[in-house]
Q: What sequence folds into this?
């Protein structure tokens, strides 16, 4: 390859779908029951009104949420660059506004990736899940009041721990109501522990990976982002966590809330580590939170998380059927649209129950025959009864990556083949692959032939080695980008599509320019236990820089009556609760709330000392020495190419 050819700038505009992708989409149109339009009828049922284009603005005039960029989805027929099944789901997720589920129960849908459910009691309205942002929650409440009249909020229920279900709570409850403590905030047991910890320790890496899962930096359009499976995308805006005042502990627990009886079922370690379902006899309404939605859910999100328990998930759905089968006239979840009628509800629950059980059992069966995770993904096929159920399609999760999650849960990352025990990292192995395959030109010539045949999966594998070996090889970057693009066009899973297309975009244009990571919100910090704060600090410690150092600091918090010894030794930061070291380098006495303000960058440590909020003994510079050993994590880092900055 000549230097000129090597440095040709790749075309930055998305390409057309290849002939093999077009043929795949044609086969999908024949294979799936597109004539079944009940979902479209049910997604529109009970519509009362909406906000134009679902557009929500912040107080500063920033768009927090809008469906206007998705106007292209008005077309009934899928373009060749989108899987027709995914196109169908993307169009269903365009329904937005206030909907009546049954008289007395309403949902806000399409103003966020998640739903807000509003249940009218004897005195006011109970709000179930508060969307992602405060701005979105306020807009949702205003829309509800516009059509149902102004009513007091008599309770807030969080069904589970993910941010899109609690982040907007301050848009539902104002400061005066919160201060009065008159409105119960009800959540499943261990809600706080998981809500604040699930995405914080590994938060920087998760947020970067989430860009691939949700595609926020992709253009909206037939050659870009069209959906996320569960809904359109994650909302922007302000987020704050409210601490629950009442925890549901066990299946069978009941509460009378604003005159309504609620029957609860616990579902921990299913879609979220703390999650619950409920049934309201007065309305014959069943809500299964996020465990029975209109797609096959994720057992391991691309952003990262603890692997979810498919077997437990299936059992919770079976238990829900036992508890409430034949009793519900309507079932709504916290994503997607409801279903009505006892037979249809029970059928959907049974099929979802069996979807997760089939994936679990057949993965384990094949695993016990000696198949590895990729081999299981290539072998397993859903039975026709599940494959043909629209709500079982893999728009958010997918059978091909869910089985890998199940394998990981039981056996971990290692497939027992010693060749995979300690492989070379991507750059070093990439260079050797390129050498073994005869150099860049030979790889690209062969890749072009396989690309023309539609063998995109292997082309991506082969050319990725070349990109990691020669990251500035523009022909290689262009070929890999084109390949990712075709894989994205062919994907039924919205998350797969987003990942492939965003990978293609970064190869062509580089990483998006993003502002620095903002400080952790004051409200979130206040929700963290002090032990969790020390854990967060520990993962920021740069071990090599800390070589040979020993620092011991005493902490005494006057507002929480907590004492800690923070100890740096052997390049690890540990702590002891309820103790003070007699030979500490320094001791600090302060309110825990002041430490939160410092971390949130609302003040500095010296300013707080000068203001008399912090008292100390010993050498306070030892704290500064410790903080000099802490890494600041970047908001962006390379994924589809080598790291440009060395990390020690």
A:
């Amino acid at each position: 390859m000549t230097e000129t050819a090597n440095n040709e700038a790749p075309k930055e505009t998305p390409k057309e779908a290849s002939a093999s992708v077009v043929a795949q989409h044609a086969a999908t149109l024949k294979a799936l029951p597109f004539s079944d339009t009940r979902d479209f009828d049910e997604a529109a049922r009970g519509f009362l009104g909406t906000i134009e284009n679902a557009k929500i603005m912040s107080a500063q005039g920033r768009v927090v949420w809008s469906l206007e960029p998705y106007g292209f989805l008005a077309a009934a027929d899928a373009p060749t660059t989108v899987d027709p099944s995914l196109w169908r789901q993307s169009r269903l997720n365009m329904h937005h506004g206030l909907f009546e589920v049954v008289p007395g129960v309403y949902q806000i849908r399409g103003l966020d990736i998640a739903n807000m459910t509003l249940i009218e009691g004897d005195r006011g309205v109970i709000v179930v899940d508060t969307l992602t942002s405060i701005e979105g929650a306020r807009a949702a409440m205003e829309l509800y009041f516009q059509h149902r009249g102004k009513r007091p909020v008599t309770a807030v229920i969080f069904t589970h721990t993910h941010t899109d279900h609690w982040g907007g709570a301050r848009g539902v409850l104002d400061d005066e109501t919160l201060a009065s403590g008159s409105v119960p905030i009800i959540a499943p047991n261990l809600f706080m522990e998981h809500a604040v910890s699930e995405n914080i320790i590994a938060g920087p890496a998760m947020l970067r990976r989430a860009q691939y899962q949700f595609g926020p930096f992709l253009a909206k359009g037939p050659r870009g982002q069209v959906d996320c499976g569960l809904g359109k995308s994650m909302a922007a805006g302000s987020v704050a966590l409210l601490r629950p005042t009442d925890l549901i502990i066990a299946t069978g627990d009941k509460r009378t809330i604003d005159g309504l009886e609620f029957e609860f079922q616990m579902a921990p370690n299913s879609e979220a580590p703390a999650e619950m379902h409920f049934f309201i006899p007065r309305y014959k309404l069943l809500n299964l939170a996020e465990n029975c939605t209109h797609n096959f859910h994720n057992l391991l999100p691309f952003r990262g998380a603890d692997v979810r328990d498919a077997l437990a998930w299936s059992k919770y759905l079976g238990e829900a059927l036992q508890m409430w089968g034949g009793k519900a006239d309507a079932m709504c979840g916290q994503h997607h649209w409801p279903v009505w009628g006892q037979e249809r509800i029970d059928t959907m629950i049974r099929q979802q129950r069996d979807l997760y059980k089939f994936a679990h059992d057949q993965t384990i069966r094949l695993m016990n025959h000696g198949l590895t995770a990729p081999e299981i993904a290539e072998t397993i096929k859903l039975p026709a009864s599940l494959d043909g159920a629209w709500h079982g399609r893999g728009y958010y999760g997918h059978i091909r990556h869910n089985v890998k999650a199940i394998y990981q849960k039981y056996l971990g990352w290692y497939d027992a083949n010693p060749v995979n025990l300690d492989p070379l990292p991507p750059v070093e192995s990439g260079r050797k692959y390129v050498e073994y395959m005869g150099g860049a030109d030979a790889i690209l010539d062969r890749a072009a032939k396989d690309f023309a045949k539609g063998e995109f999966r292997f082309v991506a594998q082969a050319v990725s080695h070349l990109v990691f070996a020669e990251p500035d090889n523009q022909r290689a970057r262009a070929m890999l980008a084109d390949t990712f693009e075709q894989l994205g066009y062919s994907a039924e899973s919205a998350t797969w599509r987003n990942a492939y297309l965003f990978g293609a975009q970064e190869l062509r244009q580089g990483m998006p320019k993003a502002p620095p990571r903002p400080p952790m919100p004051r409200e979130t910090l206040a929700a963290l236990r002090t032990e969790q704060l020390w854990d967060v600090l520990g993962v920021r410690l740069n071990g090599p820089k800390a070589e040979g150092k020993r620092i011991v600091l005493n902490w005494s918090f006057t507002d929480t009556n907590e004492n800690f010894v923070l100890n740096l030794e052997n390049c690890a930061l540990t702590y002891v609760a309820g103790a003070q070291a007699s030979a500490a380098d320094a001791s600090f006495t302060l309110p825990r709330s002041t430490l939160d303000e410092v971390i949130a960058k609302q003040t500095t440590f010296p300013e707080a000392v000068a203001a008399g909020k912090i008292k100390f003994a010993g050498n306070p510079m030892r704290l500064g020495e410790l903080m000099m050993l802490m890494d600041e994590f970047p908001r962006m880092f390379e994924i589809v190419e080598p790291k440009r900055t060395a990390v020690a």
